[in-house]
Amino acid sequence: MKLGLYGQQLTLMEELKAATFLPHARLQALPFFQALMACQLPLESYVGHLRSLSIVHGILEQALESSSDDRVASVWKDDMRKLPLLQYDLGFFEPRIVADVKDAVDAAIKIAERIRLRSIQEPVTLLGYLYVLEGSTLGAAVLRPQFARAFLLTGTDGLSYLGSYGTEIHVRWKQYQQRMNAIQLSLEEREQIVQAAGGFFTQTQAIFQALYPVKPDSMTYHVTSINPEAGRHPVPADTREVKASLHAADLCWQRFPYIEARYGERGRRFTRSDSAWLATFHQFDPVGISLQVRWLSRILSSRGMPTLLLQEQLEILFAELACAIPEKRPDYEKLLAAAAELRESRRMRISDEQLEALATDFDRAVGPEWSERMANTGALIAAAVADEKGGIADAVVNIKAWMMDASRFPSEWIQAVQTTLDRAQQIGELQ
Ligand code: HEM
């Protein structure tokens, strides 16, 4: 046990503070915090910090919660969780499509692995990690106004993690100190906790060093940043292509209000992650693209999104990509060719003129209010019939059930849907 300046015994919290004084000072001096003070920190660095911390908090909070060590249980309280706050903040930044800083993610994963191991081998040392993160709430409260100023954030938007405990912060810190100082430890255990805290400070330094300045080759886009549910499919590495594909998705989303009305915010996220995926297709040969696009069109149509949507999304995407990087236009033209293939297969059942006429009649039948609110829906209904005639089994059943729900639409609308379906069926049979 360490003694204080006058030979008195230090409490556990005093010992932790003394032992980590230097690493704390080293952290504060990192370029990350200097850039923050100068309002020069990029958003990637801030969001990257939230993402890395959510990896660490996720594993640590789970380990503390399920620890069988009584001392750990006596210090940890469920209301100390920070993961929900981090997730709330990350949700706020989600629409901005912020690139991942790969080296920071890797450093956080390394820490998470270490925590997992400790939770099995020496669970009481998790209290060293908890000390660093609880203590960092004190620093966060000081830094919060600076982050708010640097990124023009107000209220809790993107700032709730930094504002953990709000005005109770000092009371909570005192209570936490008391719980820590009350536990019984052997000298060896105490030493291990102090070492764990020191080691964690050093590992945290690696995260902040990776976050600023960011090495250019460490910036990457992971599809989960666009849509956490999208799994593992690729997205472009070039920021211009990511931006263009997301803009294309938003244009498509606006052109067909049906997607929002039916699938809500989740539909928007999938439109965006699919668009980013489509933007990677130009690297394949035309046969490969055609196969992928046809496969995707069948999946989407059988889930209520007729092929017309994908066709138009590809056309809009081409225009956006070609505008963003004109020299790659010949590559992007492959997307246009894939769209033309989808268009051709629909034309075999319903021509452009017939589709147009069905769409116009539908709008007239539902009236100006509904045709504006749900623009381009008549064309989608007719296109679903063409898909079904082309062999996509559930294309009509799926969209029809939703479109004819009387709790959602007035009777004129339902009548217009039925008429459009009947006429499209007749046209399809004649082709
Ligand atoms: C420029 C960045 C930072 C500033 C300005 C800062 C500032 C502060 C301040 C003002 C305190 C309260 C000191 C006291 O009341 O005695 C504190 C405590 C603490 N900070 Fe920081 N901090 C920063 C970064 C960090 C980081 C990144 C971590 C850890 C990941 C951290 C961990 C701690 C810990 C563990 C304590 C508790 C010390 C104790 O035992 O009293 N700090 N910090």
Can you list the ligands bound to this structure?
A: protoporphyrin IX containing FE
Number of strand elements: 2
Number of domains: 3
CATH domain topology of the largest domain: Heme Oxygenase, Chain A
Q: Can you name the CATH architecture of the largest domain?
A: Up-down Bundle
CATH superfamily placement of the largest domain: Heme oxygenase-like
Helical content stands at over 70%
Distance between the ends? 89 Å
**Helix vs. strand class:** mainly alpha
Q: Helix segment count?
A: 20
Rg, alpha carbons: 28 Å
User: Numbering strands along the chain, what is their spatial order in the largest sheet?
Assistant: 1-2
Uncertain spans: none
Q: What coarse outline follows from CA principal-axis ratios? A: elongated
The largest β sheet comes out as: 2 strands, antiparallel
Secondary-structure element string? HHHHHHEHHHHEHHHHHHHHHH
Beta-strand content: under 5%
Would you mind describing this structure in some detail?
With 431 residues, this protein is an all-alpha fold. It folds into 3 domains: 12-220, Heme oxygenase-like (Heme Oxygenase, Chain A), CATH 1.20.910; 226-347, no CATH class; 352-430. The protein contains 20 helices and 2 strands. It has a two-stranded antiparallel ribbon with strand order 1-2. Helix 4 (43-65) packs antiparallel against helix 8 and helix 12 runs antiparallel to helix 13. The N and C termini lie far apart (89 Å). 39% of the residues are buried. Bound molecules: protoporphyrin IX containing FE.
